[in-house]
Design goal:
about 220 residues; alpha/beta; 5-stranded parallel β-sheet; about 50% helix; globular
Length: about 220
């Protein structure tokens, strides 16, 4: 039996997922088993079921993701899984931030099928893949380092609650969405505030928004 790679595709655009599926079904040297998810909550569900994925292909703009926060969460909770970012935002600063936050590569969405295949094969082989012009931005600020460390300390469920807080949901609405008690959500929110070093929902939302792409691509 030959080697089979289990790859998780996290992207909310079915058309691009099917392009990735096409590229990876034909251009990789080993067998690949592909699983698709379309949001951060679906991604977390897939990771709850198993943590031995060989690779996650992560779109930065997806429901439940605030910029680099999904990448920070993945690297913090599942450091053994390599992550390659795929994005339509192709500025050099975005490549650099993806690298700073622990990605193993970056695939612009404008890439050819051959470039996608080459990038994925490199990372599966234990390497990294970065576009040529990915060196043009300064290092992470101390604030970005602090917030990324704080976000990485959240559990997946706390991260899910935080994104819902940032979307303006009240505790009872979050409890309904997640099918848990309001007291459980209050406990999560208290823990989130402590880990982020904030005192209000607005401050928590601002911390998460520090991971936005626009801020990093200035």
């Amino acid at each position: 039996m030959g080697l089979t790679y289990d790859i998780l595709i996290a992207d909310d655009h079915p058309l691009f997922r099917s392009a990735l599926r096409q590229a990876l079904s034909t251009g990789i040297e080993a067998e690949v088993s592909l699983t698709e998810v379309g949001s951060i909550s679906e991604l977390q569900g897939a990771l709850d079921q198993r943590t031995d994925w060989d690779l996650v292909l992560l779109d930065l703009n997806m429901p439940g993701a605030y910029g680099f926060s999904g990448l920070v969460l993945l690297r913090g909770q599942y450091p053994q899984i390599p992550v390659v970012v795929i994005s339509a935002q192709e500025e050099a600063a975005v490549y650099k931030r993806a690298r700073d936050f622990g990605a193993s590569g970056f695939i612009p969405k404008s890439s050819s099928l051959e470039d996608i295949q080459r990038a994925v094969q490199l990372v599966l082989d234990g390497g990294v893949f970065w576009p040529q012009q990915g060196e043009d931005s300064g290092p992470l600020s101390n604030e970005e380092k602090t917030i990324s460390t704080q976000l990485a300390s959240l559990t997946p469920q706390q991260f899910r609650v935080l994104t819902m807080v940032c979307d303006g949901l009240l505790n009872k609405q979050i409890a309904y969405e997640l099918n848990v008690s309001e007291a459980t959500i209050k406990a999560h929110v208290t823990a989130i505030f402590r880990k982020l070093g904030v005192r209000t929902r607005t401050q928590a939302a601002l911390a998460l928004q520090h991971m936005e792409l626009a801020r990093s691509a200035r």
